[in-house]
Amino acid sequence: QVQLVESGGGLVQAGASLRLSCAASGRTSSRRTLGWFRQAPGKERDFVAAITWSDGITHYADSVKGRFTISRETSKNTVYLRMNSQKPADTTVYYCASTRKPKPITTMTRSNLYENWGQGAQVTVSA
Q: From CA 25, how far away is CA 92, in angstroms rounded?
């Protein structure tokens, strides 16, 4: 089993930056993909970004491309989501997810492809 713990959420003003962290522990694997999703109350969980652990290949949702950056730090078993130029529309809960059965990175946009999830981190962007 893999445990994922997010941190770094909070309240920021529009235009500011914030970085989320997701620390993984347990039965992790070098052959895995990690992703970030976000979910507003009453809505579906939307894909934000994904990264392959072994070689750092990334993929982004169009809505965040150019503003958000996903990265990983292998020595700390941690994946990050750097969010720049934040908008009030970015306000929601962000979830980290991982899978040991990755498919091509551009297809890793569906939440049901991931087996493990973190508890979520609230991000609030004020106007």
A: 25
